[in-house]
Amino acid sequence: MKSYRQELWFDLKQRREFVNITPQVARCLADSGITEGLCLVNAMHISASVFINDDESGLHHDFEVWLEKLAPEKPHSQYRHNGYEDNADAHLKRTVMGREVVVAVSGGQLDFGPWEQIFYGEFDGNRKKRVLVKIIGE
User: What is the pLDDT along the chain (138 residues), one digit of tens a residue?
Assistant: First the structure.
């Protein structure tokens, strides 16, 4: 069995943003030489997420509105966590959207269902963050 590890780095200029990282993950898969196995993609920061969904701008807007209703950023004083930082809402949003995804690798390709894409969800931007891609297989 082979193993491949790569970090993808992001420095987003907005506090919250969704980025389609499917092309970067597919590039990692090609670089790995693995044709059958599993691909793990996970956020390495507690205020960011990796998830699978449709790449549709209306849906991304709906996520933003829904998450803001569930865990509004302001007022910062509503959260006990907010002392040194003002990102309690980002921690809660990450919990809802998830930490990682695992995608089957078949025939050297990411084995998706219709419309599925991998996204990085940033909930506390304006600093450098990373995603881990770990691929195992043959």
Answer: 999 999 999 999 899 999 999 999 999 999 999 999 999 999 999 999 999 999 999 999 999 999 999 999 999 888 889 887 899 999 999 999 999 999 999 999 999 999 999 999 999 998 899 999 999 999
Tokens of 48: 């960011």
Give me the CATH number covering residue 77.
Answer: 2.60.120.460
Which residues, in sequence order, are bridge partners of residue 129? 10
Number of domains in the chain: 1
User: CA–CA separation, 127 vs 88, rounded Å?
Assistant: 16
The parent domain of residue 118 ranges over 2-137
Cα distance between residue 82 and residue 64, in whole Å = 21
